[in-house]
């Protein structure tokens, strides 16, 4: 394999793994019947409710201690209760209607301006910016827009989602988790985790220093 490029080495290794199924030590259950799915969800929900302890959530989300990846139990039930009652209730959604209205109005103004000037506008990017701004204002109180028009929270969120969906050798072949180091995945996860920590620490300190009348998610959690 000395003359092979790195992607070719990964392909050769993958072929070897396919020929040696005993190396795959992560059990998986494949359900192809709607009746069986109904049986599992209705009568055995607790057994299958947990998510696996994957590498990406463990590094990025404080060992998976968020409401999406935390194991089923008392901690998860309390986190879910806080989310449903304090953050995502109908009353709270209605309280943030002003942020949605303002961001949608700003988007319409940008589109109108582009039409008047005869310039083009990327609707995909525009809708992503609007969504990021709405979420950022509801959660953090402001948009965190840079001078060049980039959104810090938007870039971090996009990077986070890409890494959460990235393939990890360690998730499927625990004995080969060292491959995540060789591929650079673990390094990217740690780098993104540090950037998230710095960003959230800054946001928390700002909220502690300035009390605002309209509370966002960070104020509520603090």
Structural account:
The chain is mostly helical and 222 residues long. It has a single domain, classed as Cytochrome p450 (Orthogonal Bundle). The chain contains 13 helices and no strands. The protein has helices spanning 6-19, 34-43, 45-48, 55-60, 74-87, 90-95, 97-117, 123-140, 152-164, 169-172, 178-182, 185-209, 217-221. Helix 7 runs antiparallel to helix 8 (123-140). The longest helix is centred in the last third of the chain and has 25 residues, at 185-209. The termini are far apart. Residues 1-6 have low confidence and may be disordered. This is Cytochrome P450. Belongs to the cytochrome P450 family. GO terms for molecular function: heme binding; iron ion binding; monooxygenase activity; oxidoreductase activity, acting on paired donors, with incorporation or reduction of molecular oxygen.
């Amino acid at each position: 394999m000395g003359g092979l490029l790195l992607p070719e080495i990964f392909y050769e290794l993958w072929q070897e793994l396919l020929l040696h199924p005993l190396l795959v030590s992560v059990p998986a259950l494949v359900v192809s019947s709607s009746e069986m799915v109904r049986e599992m969800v209705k009568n055995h929900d607790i057994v299958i409710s947990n998510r696996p302890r994957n590498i990406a959530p463990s590094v990025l989300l404080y060992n998976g201690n968020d409401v999406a990846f935390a194991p089923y139990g008392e901690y998860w039930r309390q986190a879910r209760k806080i989310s449903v009652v304090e953050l995502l209730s109908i009353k709270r959604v209605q309280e943030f209607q002003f942020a949605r209205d303002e961001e949608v109005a700003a988007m319409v103004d940008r589109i109108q301006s582009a039409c008047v000037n005869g310039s083009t506008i990327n609707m995909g990017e525009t809708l992503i910016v609007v969504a990021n701004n709405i979420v950022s204002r509801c959660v953090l109180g402001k948009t965190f827009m840079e001078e060049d028009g980039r959104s810090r929270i938007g870039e971090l969120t996009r990077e986070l989602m890409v890494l959460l969906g990235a393939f990890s050798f360690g998730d499927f072949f625990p004995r080969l988790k060292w491959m995540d180091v060789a591929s650079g995945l673990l390094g990217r996860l740690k780098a993104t985790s540090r950037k998230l920590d710095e960003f959230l620490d800054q946001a928390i300190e700002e909220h502690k220093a300035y009390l605002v009348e309209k509370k966002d998610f960070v104020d509520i959690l603090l």
